[in-house]
């Protein structure tokens, strides 16, 4: 039995290495915000083509998210993350040498498959690998690494802005990809995967090393024994409470995207360029967004296990809605007015702060906690598909909507969707703080079975 100090060190090591997947996720989604300013003129791209190249990563991510959970169930969470790191390396290098819009789009799609798979499997790995008491902080470390990755992308873009070298901007993602693959090779898989593959002794040993109680280990083994012999799709179709629970997790994934966070992440430089900032200065505005994201996410990481997931998510959504309404008014008047342009950037920063301190970490965490153990692979995949599908829609249609309706009207649409998301969370999402994954699943089972009987 590991001592408490040994368990804490082990959990931190495991969490930091696995969270390199979040760093890659953040870098590859953030790097296009600056690189696009140089790729577009070089290839003579239209706004629709710019949206297409950006969103193809998200098409691949939807595929990766849908398949990543099943692959992780089949070959293990650890092996899936190693393969994901290798694909990151290959996709990044392909992006760097792409010579046409079609080639870049294809490379971004391959990269997206790795992004989507890793975005699901890292929270799955972490939520299954650490004790309930610290699960919020450790799983949310992945979200912190996402915004750190985005900040690194913004800094790289800014450092290379004077050269216009978008090839290097995109290719540098190969470095953390290699680090993820190598680091995961030295870590074990999770107790849940070992229980699924009938290695109870190994499950107990890994769980004990992480400081989990014997009760948590027994619940994991018992839950998988109860589901023995039934396929996950069969279990999902035949059990109303299971598919309703997965549906709630999928809606939570959509909630992360419906207020348009990635419209700001992907297109903040483009938006600021449209109201009069120079191309180089527009790239630099991403650093502001990135710094705010990292600080806010770090704050969220410190409080999520104390405040609770549900309360934090509701507060973040409400600040999002208010910020979007203000932004709709201010940005619409900002063209040719430097003061209003600067105010628009400040409001964007407030919006990003509430998103990264509250909405993003709680949604990723809740998805990893809510999906029941017996349909873990399929359920996480479906929730990830919903999240990445919403992300794709924002990336693909944001700039065309701005051209068609105006930026102000588009921000008001996001605000309305944010209000709908707030209402859903109030009614359907319970608090999961400090509870084992099995206990969370049992709460949903009782809720939906009671609703069926009534």
From TrEMBL:
Alphabetized UniProt keyword annotations: Membrane, Transmembrane, Transmembrane helix, Transport
Organism per entry: Corynebacterium tapiri
Family the UniProt entry places it in: Belongs to the major facilitator superfamily. Sugar transporter (TC 2.A.1.1) family.
Cited Pfam families: Sugar_tr
Domain Major facilitator superfamily (MFS) profile: start-end pairs: 14-433
Topology versus the membrane: Multi-pass membrane protein
Source domain of life: Bacteria
Gene Ontology terms: cellular component: plasma membrane
Localization, UniProt: Cell membrane
GO terms assigned for molecular function: transmembrane transporter activity
Record-given protein name: Sugar porter family MFS transporter
PANTHER family: PROTON MYO-INOSITOL COTRANSPORTER
Lineage summary: Bacteria, Bacillati, Actinomycetota, Actinomycetes, Mycobacteriales
Main location as per UniProt: membrane
Regions crossing the membrane: 12-39, 51-69, 81-104, 110-127, 139-160, 166-187, 241-268, 283-301, 313-334, 340-367, 379-399, 405-425
């Amino acid at each position: 039995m590991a001592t408490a100090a040994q368990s804490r060190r082990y959990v931190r090591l495991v969490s930091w290495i696995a969270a390199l997947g979040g760093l890659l996720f953040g870098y590859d989604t953030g790097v296009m915000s600056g690189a696009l300013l140089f790729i577009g003129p070089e290839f003579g791209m239209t706004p629709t083509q710019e949206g297409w190249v950006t969103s193809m990563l998200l098409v691949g991510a939807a595929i990766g998210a849908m398949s990543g959970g099943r692959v992780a169930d089949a070959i293990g969470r650890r092996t899936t993350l190693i393969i994901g790191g290798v694909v990151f390396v290959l996709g990044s290098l392909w992006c760097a040498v792409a010579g046409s819009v079609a080639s870049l789009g294809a490379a971004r799609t391959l990269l997206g498959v790795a992004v989507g798979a890793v975005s699901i499997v890292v929270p799955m790995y972490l939520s299954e690998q650490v004790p309930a008491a610290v699960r919020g902080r450790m799983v949310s470390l992945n979200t912190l690494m996402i915004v750190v990755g985005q900040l690194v992308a913004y800094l790289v873009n800014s450092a290379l802005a004077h050269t216009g070298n978008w090839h290097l901007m995109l290719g540098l993602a190969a470095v953390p990809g290699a680090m993820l693959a190598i680091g995961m090779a030295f870590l074990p898989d999770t107790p849940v995967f070992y229980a699924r593959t009938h290695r109870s002794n190994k499950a107990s040993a890994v769980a004990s090393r992480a400081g989990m109680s014997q009760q948590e280990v027994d619940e994991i083994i018992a839950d998988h024994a109860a589901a023995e012999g039934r396929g996950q799709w069969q279990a999902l179709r035949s059990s109303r409470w299971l598919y309703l629970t997965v549906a709630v997790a999928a809606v939570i994934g959509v909630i992360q995207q419906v207020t348009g966070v990635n419209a700001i992440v992907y297109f903040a430089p483009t938006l600021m360029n449209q109201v009069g900032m120079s191309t180089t200065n527009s790239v630099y505005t991403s650093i502001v967004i990135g710094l705010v994201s990292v600080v806010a996410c770090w704050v969220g990481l410190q409080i999520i296990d104390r405040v609770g997931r549900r309360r934090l998510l509701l507060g973040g959504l409400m600040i999002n809605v208010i910020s979007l309404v203000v932004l709709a008014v201010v940005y619409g008047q900002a063209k040719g007015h430097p003061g209003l342009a600067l105010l628009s950037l400040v409001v964007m920063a407030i919006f990003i702060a509430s998103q990264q301190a509250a909405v993003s970490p709680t949604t990723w965490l809740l998805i990893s906690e809510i999906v029941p153990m017996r349909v873990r692979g399929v359920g996480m995949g479906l929730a990830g598909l919903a999240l990445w599908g919403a992300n794709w829609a924002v990336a693909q249609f944001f700039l065309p909507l701005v051209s068609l309706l105006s930026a102000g009207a588009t921000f008001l649409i996001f605000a309305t969707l944010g209000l709908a998301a707030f209402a859903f969370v109030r009614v359907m999402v319970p608090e999961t703080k400090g509870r084992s994954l099995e206990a969370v699943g049992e709460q949903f089972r009782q809720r939906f079975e009671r609703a069926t009987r009534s």
